[in-house]
Design brief:
Layout (H helix, E strand, L loop, with lengths): L11 E3 L2 E3 L6 E5 L6 E6 L3 H20 L2 H17 L1 H12 L3 H23 L4 E2 L7 E10 L3 E4 L7 H13 L3 E4 L5 H13 L7 E3 L4 H10 L5 E5 L2 H14 L2 E5 L4 E5 L5 H13 L9 E7 H16 L19 H16 L3 E4 L14 E4 L6 H4 L6 E7 L2 H8 L4 E2 L1 E5 L3 H10 L4 E4 L14 E2 L2 E2 L5 H6 L2 E9 L1
Amino acid sequence: MNATHDYPELALHVGGRWITHTDAGVLDVIDPASGDRLATLPLAGADEAAAAFEAAGRAQPKWAALSPLARQQILVRGTALLRERAARIAHVMTQEQGKPLAESEREVLLAADIIDFLAEEARRQGGRLVPPRGGPITSQSVHRVPVGPVAAFTPWNFPINLPARKLGGALAAGCTVVLKPAEETPASAQLLVQALLDGGLPDGVLNLLFGHPAQVSAAAVANPWIAKLSFTGSTAVGRSLAAQCGQALKRFTGELGGHAPVIVCDDADVPAAVAALVSAKFRGAGQVCTAPTRLLVQRRIHAAFTDAFVAAASALRVGPGLQPGVQMGPLIAARRVEFMQVLVDDAVALGGTLLCGGKPLPGSGFFYPPTVLADVPTSARAQREEPFGPLAMIDAFDDIDEALTRANALPQALAAYAFTRDLQRAHRLGQGLRAGMVGINHCGLSQPETPFGGQGDSGIGGSESGLEGLLSYTETRLLSVAA
């Protein structure tokens, strides 16, 4: 497959069999730090997709019949292997995604923790008893049962973490899975699947497809074996998939785009706020759906905060993620660099002020520097469209009500943040910010134990991770017994 010496041969996995050649063609996998080809990726055609869906469907009854303890024991053997292989997987992830090596390794280890939590939580989920009213009914109980085979679609920005959320919840709940990760970062997901298979998953329980996303998703919606689609990606695609699943009466969970606001009050610890926000904004080169982007800073500290934020952003070391000391890697592809420039040029043309960055970095690869804009009008595209890149905007506000109105002005409502040392303000902001996740004085919202999901245009059909990420792969069944 023309793989480099330290990059794995790519393959599909269907019904217990690895497939390295298909009749549906191939795609090049590109190193975003150099623009060079890493390997070619075999794509699934209609036959491979149908075979994967059928394999999952046929494996479903036996997998669901296992006890939660038995499923948990298999999954934790897989996560133990994931941890053993973390350094190798992280290296591959950085090759194909670009993020610094330390970020990649943390992602692998967090993915193992996510799956472990969900597998353990499944053991705790009993039913509940409902006292009967009398008569011939002697008992009534409510049970959670697996929804059935799942088609899971994940993007390239977190190529291990995002599949782990779906696989952990679905497999622990007793569902089989057909995973369709992003074609930009195939090896990371393949190595995750390999570890779980090596842990003892039976044939057909976990299948891996790569292919043209619209074709694979349409086939999944139409296929009678598939009971649910789970998707992480853009709001536009999520809206289309939700409509298709609605027509087919199939369950759907969409974790969609964000455009996170931040409110920094004048009593905030400015150095601590700057450190937290710069780290969160430029992690993954800003290609993170929860990245803080619309920074609203109370006027009294606006100048000091802006100076400190720009200085910290400008000091970040940008380069290939495999180089020691690099703090921010490249964007995933040339199209993302081009989009950053469109947003910056539009904002400046409408009156925004460029404080740092704002032009692609010279040389090979898809590098765009940390970029900060001030006084960007609400008519600018960057204020309305998720940049999904290393672009932050800072503006001033005078009172909390004004800040909340501006923060809540968009239909996206995934994550929001606020910084204040006043307890009363903290609670007011926590209640007033419209988002599925709100962080006060920190930006670390994604943990194995906590639900991850949005409101409005940022999510539909349930959350991922936490207990909610398990229950979204189950349905309710009432068992009523008469004498």
